[in-house]
Automatic annotation (TrEMBL):
GO terms for cellular component: membrane. InterPro entries: GPCR-associated_LMBR1, LMBR1-like_membr_prot. Keywords: Coiled coil, Membrane, Transmembrane, Transmembrane helix. This is LMBD2 protein. The keyword Membrane applies. Residues 658-669 have a biased composition (Acidic residues). The lineage of its organism: Eukaryota, Metazoa, Chordata, Craniata, Vertebrata.
């Protein structure tokens, strides 16, 4: 099994990253380089999280083997035996041979750092650029990132000059490398604690509120009102941008040098706008004959950028609106079915997507009623309690992990108890659950936060390229300090445990933080304690209240603005529900009309065709008889009457356009 666990996790994590990227990105419309760069960033970060427990178990086995093989005289040397024992060390099933993990961590770490500090910022500017050529986009990206890269080079150059001038410093290349790693991890740890403090409280609370149907329905109404405002704003913005595109398209004719740029802009517009602008275009016209003021290429680049942004925003709001409607309709169905005596779940509307037959066979209406109305609320409550327990353990360990005598960090206690018996499966499971919960708290916050329309991860393939690349940058900057924080909580980091033991392969590539003692002994130890303050602020929704005071509508139960938006959203959902009901009723009546009169019309048509054939043959045999033309005309009249019956459609009596007053209907007719 040597190396088999490593290979299995490498493949599994790749498909996990691919699945998440497919949920948020759009493989068909977005650039391949954007998809590959984002997939690589997500994959490397997830890989670090999943492989680190294997590194811990391998390190514990190496310590055990070293303790057994070393003599008492050698135990005072470079390594100290943790649990001297004469029993044989059992090799874990996921043991990774020596020499593989250091190379693996070095490749993964430096690749992720290259992505987050160099490649992804450049690709962000490239993807957001409105240039019409690759050269133009690269030029724009270099100009936008000149200040970004120049700032880091200036700081690094000033530091090198200071080290060269000061005779007290005698730093080597490895120490400079460690300082660079420490600087990157310090920046990541600063952001990590902020996101972790929010996730530790919000994740258990969201699952607890998920058991409250009334709460979810009110929040859905609130989201509907906000999304309708954003949707109307996106439509208005798109109309304004399309009007500018129309003016530019009419001013720049086919033989103008900038016409290729205009055609590129038109390809990015929605189809209905392209057809509308194509009908208004004149024939070839010489642009030199009319002294018009033509837009410059720079203004077209700016317009191209605006078109890409407005079209993507409009499409995203349309998709989100349809998804939110389905959620609201489903929550209303759950509220209605809770008092059902038949204990069978009844949907107001049928699903628009075809259901899987296997799922439909097992997930019957009775099973769905028991799950949605009885079991699911209790399941969410139990899950919320478990997650809250994990959050309390994390907060306690973050505040006490620096204490080694006695050991107060609960995660360190669990690992040390399992280390005494060398129960590697328990060690790996404990490490995996710990770091998985920490990563869920941090990564879920990255997926939830939204910075206006600048950064927003929207599911159902509605995330733009800029937000995907930005999320990859955040993951690559947050994952290394997250893993170091996990190793500190479990006392697997020698900087925290203050023991001269064999380090893990992950900490070995980070170097000794003793080069910067004020960071190793100060910031890394005491800064994570701020998570307590952030958890308290999140529990009392201080951030939400501040945003609400600044004018950003947030869901708050005791706010008058929230109540108004809930009422507005409820009316919007009711209006959309009536609209969809009228559409389904009209389709049902059309279907019933075809089923009722379709067979009769087909039989009448066949009988009429048979009569025509018989009459035509009779006409050919006796052309002098005048009765044939009447028969033929009667057949034509019969066919016309049948076609009129087929073209007729039933009236929608629930529609608003139908008037109940017969006098007014006669006058209208």
């Amino acid at each position: 099994m040597s190396g088999a666990a490593l290979g299995l996790e490498i493949v599994s994590v790749f498909f996990l990253a691919l699945f998440l990227l497919h949920r948020y990105g759009d493989f068909k419309k977005q650039h391949r380089l954007v998809i590959i760069a984002t997939l690589l960033a997500w994959y490397l970060c997830f890989l670090i999280v999943f492989i680190l427990p294997l590194d811990v178990s391998t390190t514990i086995y190496n310590r055990c083997k070293l303790a057994v093989n070393s003599s008492p005289a050698e135990s005072n040397g470079s390594y100290v035996t943790l649990a001297p024992s004469k029993q044989k060390c059992f090799k874990p099933w996921s043991y990774i041979p020596n020499g593989i993990m250091p190379i693996f961590w070095r490749v993964v770490y430096w690749t992720s750092q290259f992505l987050t500090w160099i490649l992804l910022p450049f690709m962000q500017s490239y993807a957001r650029s409105g240039g019409f050529s690759i050269t133009g986009k690269i030029k724009t990206a270099l100009i936008e990132n000149a200040i970004y890269y120049g700032t880091y080079l200036l700081i690094f150059g000033a530091f090198l000059i200071y080290v060269a001038v000061n005779p007290n410093f005698n730093l080597q290349w490895n120490q400079l490398q460690t300082i660079g790693i420490a600087a990157a991890n310090t920046w990541g740890l600063f952001l990590l604690v902020l996101l972790l403090g929010y996730g530790l409280v919000e994740i258990p609370r969201s699952h607890w509120n998920g058991a409250k149907r009334g709460y979810l329905l009110m929040k859905t109404y609130f989201k509907a009102a906000k999304l309708m405002t954003e949707k109307a704003d996106a439509e208005e913005n798109l109309e304004d941008i399309m009007e500018e595109v129309r003016k530019v398209s009419e001013s720049i004719k086919y033989n103008h040098p900038l016409r290729k740029c205009v055609d590129t802009i038109l390809k990015k517009c929605p189809t209905e706008y392209q057809e509308r602008m194509g009908r208004n275009m004149d024939d070839y016209e010489d642009f030199d004959e009319r002294q018009n003021s033509y837009p410059s290429e720079k203004s077209l680049v700016k317009l191209h950028k605006q078109v890409i942004y407005s079209v993507q925003r409009h499409r995203r709001t349309q998709v989100q609106w349809q998804i939110l409607l389905e959620q609201a309709f489903y929550l209303e169905d759950v509220a209605k079915n809770e008092t059902s005596a038949t204990r069978q779940f009844v949907h107001t509307f049928h699903s628009q997507e075809p259901e899987n037959k296997i799922i439909q066979y097992f997930y019957t209406p009775t099973v769905e009623w028991y799950w949605e109305c009885l079991l699911r609320p209790w399941f969410y409550r139990v899950l919320a309690v478990v997650l809250a327990t994990f959050s309390v353990i994390v907060v306690w360990s973050e505040c006490t992990f620096f204490s080694t005598k006695p050991v107060l960090s609960l995660f360190a206690v669990f690992i040390q108890l399992a280390e005494k018996t060398y129960n590697y499966i328990y060690i790996e499971m404990a490490c995996f659950l710990t770091i998985f919960f920490l990563s869920i708290c941090v990564y879920s916050t990255v997926f939830r936060i939204r910075v206006f329309n600048y950064y927003y991860l929207a599911s159902h393939h509605q995330t733009d390229a800029y937000s995907l690349l930005f999320s990859g940058m955040l993951f690559c900057r947050l994952t290394p300090p997250l893993c170091l924080n996990f190793l500190g909580l479990t006392h697997m980091d020698a900087t925290i445990s203050h023991k001269n033991t064999q380090p893990t392969a992950y900490t070995s590539i980070m170097g000794s933080m003793r080069v910067l003692s004020f960071i190793a002994d100060g910031f890394y130890i005491y800064y994570p304690m701020l998570v307590v303050i952030l958890c308290i602020a999140t529990y009392f929704s201080l951030g939400t209240r501040c945003l609400n005071l600044l004018g950003f509508q947030q869901f708050m139960g005791d706010s008058e603005m929230t109540s108004d938006l809930i009422d507005e959203g409820k009316e919007l959902i009711r209006r959309e529900k009536r609209k969809r009901q009228r559409q389904e009723e009209g389709e049902n009546r059309r279907r019933e009309w075809k089923e009722r009169y379709g067979n009769r019309d087909d039989s009448t048509r066949n009988r009429a065709v048979h009569t025509d054939q018989k009459e035509s043959s009779f006409t050919e045999s006796s052309a002098n008889r005048p009765l044939s033309k009447y028969t033929r005309s009667n057949g034509r009249t019969e066919r016309d009457r049948i076609e009129l019956l087929q073209d007729a459609e039933p009236l929608d009596f629930n529609a608003d356009s139908v008037n109940d007053d017969p006098l007014e209907s006669d006058s209208g007719r």
